Amino acid sequence: MSAPRRLRGALLTWAVGLGVLRLTFWAPEVCPTLTSTAARATAVDAGEWIQTNQETDGRYLYGWDRDDAEVDTGYNLVRHAGVTMSLYQLAEAGEIQFLEPADRGLDWMLGRLEPAGDGVAFADGSRAKLGASALLVVSLAHRRLVTDDTGHDETMLELGHFLQGQQRANGAMLNFYDLDADARVPEETSVYSTGEALWAIALLDEAFPDEGFEPSAWTTLDYITTERDAAEGYWPEPWPDQWAAYSLAEMAEWGLEDHHVEYAREMLHRYASFVRFDAQRGTTYGDLTHGPEPRGSGFGTWIEGLAELRELTTVDQRMNDLTDGADETLACGAARLAESQTPAGADVPPQVAGAWFYDGQTRMDDQQHAASGMLGAEPVLP
Amino acid sequence: MITAIVAFLAACNPAAALVALAHDRRTDRPLPVAAGAMAAFAALVVAAAASDAILDVLELNLGTFRVGAGAVLVVSGLRWLVAGAPRDAVEPGSDLRLAGFVAFPTLLTPAAAVLAVSVGADEGVLTVMVAAAVAIALGGLGVYLRRSVPVALGTSMVRLIGAGTVIVGAGMVVDGLQTL
Fold first, then answer.
1. Which of A91, B90, B93, B168 makes the best surface tag, with the fewest CB within 10 Å?
2. Which residues contact A168 (CB under 8 A, 6 or more apart)?
3. ipTM of the complex
4. Partner-chain contact B72 A21, CB within 8 Å
5. Is the CB of B60 less than 8 angstroms away from the CB of A329?
6. A216 to A165, A321, A327, B164: CA distances (angstroms)
7. How far apart are CA A169 and CA A371, in angstroms?
8. What pLDDT is recorded for position B91?
9. What is the DSSP string of A163-201?
10. CB contact set of B88 (below 8 Å; sequence gap of 6+)
11. What tens digit of pLDDT does each residue of A95-113 get?
12. Mutation choice for B interface testing from A265, A273, A274, A319 by most B CBs within 10 A
């Protein structure tokens, strides 16, 4: 082969290679600007979607198909509890108008408590799901912070005893309790509920430091940070668990150990890679090379996780080096998420205004996670 | 620094330079070879010095850039590993053309270029200067000493280093995913 021919071949390879890279790995990261005021408005619009579409008994609109103008008649107790929690987060952030719908959602849950183990569980059937009770506890804990009302303390403790009863010796949390058999359902765990339960137990210890919740929290945090992903088959590690992120932020002042911090660092990197990848969808060809945007709930959990871990970087010096990068990534992700919200307006139906749609459909947890994420992102926004 | 040197050795693959003109052994022209090596080195240093500007123009976070750069190393390494070195060329007649050919495409590989930007943005130009100097010097030496090394040995080394390039590239991808 002649040298000039080899040279031409190399130039062609470089040109094609750069073109392919630009369309794929090196597609520009598009990060819009979002102010904290706009983020708050986004969260409030999401809260208003939940409130406006709530039924009088406290139940929420589960889902809505925009194209067929149809209600999704399914329901999910864990999501009900999570949505209630997000309303309390809004109230805690100063949007006190959401306290009333949150309390209605709370009453709906409190009417469905069943004796389970050494306490009570939030259930609507023969099996009590751990996550539902955990997020009920989280809701109650946030309500307690907002209102200083201790009227539900006994219920919180009973729910806490149920949660502790679901804990195995290694810190893993069993996902179900069989109310008919009055026994834990062995071996079944959940990708979500272990972190949900940990956060609930950590909040219980914050509220009731003398009730013995702290050892349970450490045991499950150790399990999540050292063996959960491998033991329960989640790959690649670490599983992006925003509930664990909430827990880590909550427990930061307790004195985290190095392996907890290492896990937090890895999870922060994981979330950041998600956001950077999503930002590359901002180009005209982004959907083709990077796939469609995730639904609001999924994206919202990234922002929640990032926001909590970003907070951890500011309070734990072992993570201080990540603060600037976390700020930048969180701001970018929050701005991207806000952009995909359906704006409210005079002609916009209440089932649509303030919602995030995926394939023409929205579900109540889309608004829940997005609202929570927006509130968490506010500190890094201009 | 050691990591950077290993990465540049993997990205430049001096063994590929060794066999780039393997079957044409007519001349002994050290100056054009040295000039070509210097030009390749200078290009890598410029890429490293301009790394921040390059990332700005591309609108990329360093981590995202590093993922793509790692992919370039993986593909380059796989090519060396599976297909061996590119077919060797006939030695250019003029000194200027020989110097140019040594610089590009022999020593200035795509993998080395993207690595220079990545390391430059992360660790600074000095690290690139030292690491690239080692790799480019070995590559230039390979071109010059091609007469004294059996082609079969050089070809085997190309594949061996190619395997290393794949590993380094995969590591860069993982590292890129873990960069904020």
1. B93
2. A174
3. 0.88
4. yes
5. no
6. 10, 30, 32, 46
7. 35
8. 78
9. HHHTB-TTS-B-SEEETTTTEE-TT---TTHHHHHHHHH
10. A1, B19, B20, B21, B22, B23, B24
11. 999 999 999 999 999 999 9
12. A273
Neighbours of A231 (CB within 10 A): 12
Of B71, B92, B180, the CB nearest to A3: B92
What is the rounded average pLDDT of the residues A58-81?
A: 96
User: What's CA B38's distance to the chain center, in Å?
Assistant: 13
The tokens 């589960």 sit on which residue?
A62
Residues of B in contact with A17 (CB under 8 A): 72, 75, 110
> Residue B63: what pLDDT?
93
- Provide the phi-psi class of A212: left if phi over 0, else alpha when psi is between -120 and 50, else beta: left
Closest CA in chain B for residue A277: B64
Is the CB of residue B87 less than 8 Å away from at least one CB of chain A? Answer: yes
Instruction: Say if B92 is an interface residue toward chain A (CB within 8 Å).
Output: yes
Query: In angstroms, rounded to a whole number, what is the distance separating the alpha carbons of residues A129 and A115?
Result: 13
Cis amide prior to A382 (ω within 30 degrees): no
Closest Cβ–Cβ partner in A6, A277, A322 for B89: A6
Token reading at A309: 């871990």
Angle, helices B2-12/B151-177, rounded to nearest 10 degrees: 120
Q: For chain B, list residues with pLDDT below 70.
A: 23-27
Mutation pick from A5, A6, A270, A284 vs chain B, by most beta carbons of B within 10 Å, is A6
Q: What is the pLDDT of residues A207-262, one digit of tens each?
A: 999 999 999 999 999 999 999 999 999 989 999 999 999 999 999 999 999 999 99
pTM of the model: 0.90
Do B68 and A272 lie within an 8 Å CB cutoff?
Answer: no
Q: 3-state DSSP call for residue A66? A: coil
For the range A10-19, what are the long-range contacts, defined as Cβ-Cβ under 8 Å and sequence gap of 24 or more?
A: A10/B104, A10/B105, A11/B105, A13/B110, A14/B110, A17/B72, A17/B75, A17/B110
Task: Name A134's Cβ contacts closer than 8 Å, sequence gap at least 6.
Answer: A81, A163, A193, A196, A197, A199, A200
Q: Give every CB contact of residue A125 below 8 A, 6+ residues apart in sequence.
A: A179
pLDDT of residue B89: 76
A contacts of B180 (beta carbons < 8 Å)? 268-269, 272, 322, 324-326, 328-329
Q: Which pLDDT does position A43 carry in this prediction?
A: 98
